[in-house]
């Protein structure tokens, strides 16, 4: 089975890709964890192309092709932007090791691609770039494409409930929501993650920004009721050590 979709190099188009992958997962009866891994890697790759592959205001097209081989799901991402090989990080080329702080602020997206996919390949010509992501699969996932939040205060505790997707397309909305929290003195904040179905590097960075602010203002931030698949992303990126998770 082969499927293909073409989008413009605009951040808003990533939501179309997310829906495409979720529908693919449903059609293949993939476990939710596999669909999430595929969605996460493809979002990070395409987001990187959109933000860094084209000069400002230059229009371009990004093609996503998916195919299934025995035990494998293959995603090809093709663009005509600036060549960049995500299989080689800047620190690998220089021989320097990135600190956790540098990984979280600089190379987190590429790190997630390499950790969630079983194989990452890159090819380029004078006219186009091709990134091939391969995931091992064994042949019901209910998609949730939106972000829902609720912010309330009970006595001295601020409770922020996050449901759905905290991804590239939704982080501006989320950042606007948490902006007033960044200036509160001695904040006591609980984030209810029970309904959080998906988080990308953009979402992680937003939470890290909030956590830094809370510490600077002598407060406490707690993440509660996190799903195992979300906790796995925190663990493999090293973000678990930055938060109180219970």
From TrEMBL:
It comes from the Bacteria. This is Anti-sigma factor antagonist. Transmembrane segments: none annotated. Belongs to the anti-sigma-factor antagonist family. PROSITE patterns: STAS. Residues 147-246 form the STAS domain. It comes from Bacteroides vicugnae. CDD domains: HATPase_RsbW-like, STAS_anti-anti-sigma_factors. It holds the Pfam family STAS.
